[in-house]
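[audit] Reproducing an earlier prediction to check determinism. Same input, same settings, fresh worker. If the tokens differ from the archived copy the diff job will pick it up downstream; this log only records the rerun itself.
[audit] input (260 residues):
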Amino acid sequence: ITARKTEEESYHSLNRQLAEAIVGSVGSAHINLSRDICMNVQSPYKSVIERQKKETAEDFFSAVCTDIIDDRIRRRFDAIFHCESLCRAYENGQKRLSIEYPVNYSDGSLHWMRSNLTMFQNPDINDIEAVTYAMDITEQKKNANIIEQVTNSKFDFIAVHYIKENKIEFQNKHSQIEFIKLHEKTDYDKWREYVSETYILSDERRDYLENTRTEVIIDNLLKYNIYTIVFRQNDTNGSSRKQLQWSWLSKEHGEILMIC
């Protein structure tokens, strides 16, 4: 009885977690893989429901697959996302899968989706069920492409300043400036104070700290979309002039690209 109760609680808990996860998704579906049934399809977009609301799970997967505009990714999706393959994966211990793919919206614009699928066993009927939902990751893809392009160029460092968290994250670094590791977020103010004390020439530190304040950066970006300062930095050859530039990576998400 205790084991049964635990299974039921786990099943309902997972469903609650998934219900929270799919908030903001382009579309979601609850399907029964054991019986090939598409139990429910939800979306804030009528066109998504019209295309993907099907009687069977296989027809649902087929509808999603048809929207994928990349042949290689479509073939991969078709090979993985069908009832037999997913049930076999579940029996082998794999409960979560995800895949990224491009689609065209009704206005002709290209968007990238990330579909997440979570499988679980219904304790009442022992069927393998799944909840799948798709998130629009187009903005993330754009940002990643921008960072990749500038990373291939020769700069002292490239970083992202997350203004909502007031944190900085290095994407690439050739500079002698230490303090944080690549792809590790740290407090922006602590980092700039460290740089000022360790590398900036003493007679320029006050200006450097004033000009790199988050409020000053945002004010200039809102006015001009780009903000640049020049400063002198201590290095192995004495000192050198450096240029630090900020531009919007994603104004909507409060992400700023920093290049030095």
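[audit] rerun output stored. Observation attached for the diff report: DSSP finds nine helices and eleven strands in the chain.
[audit] end
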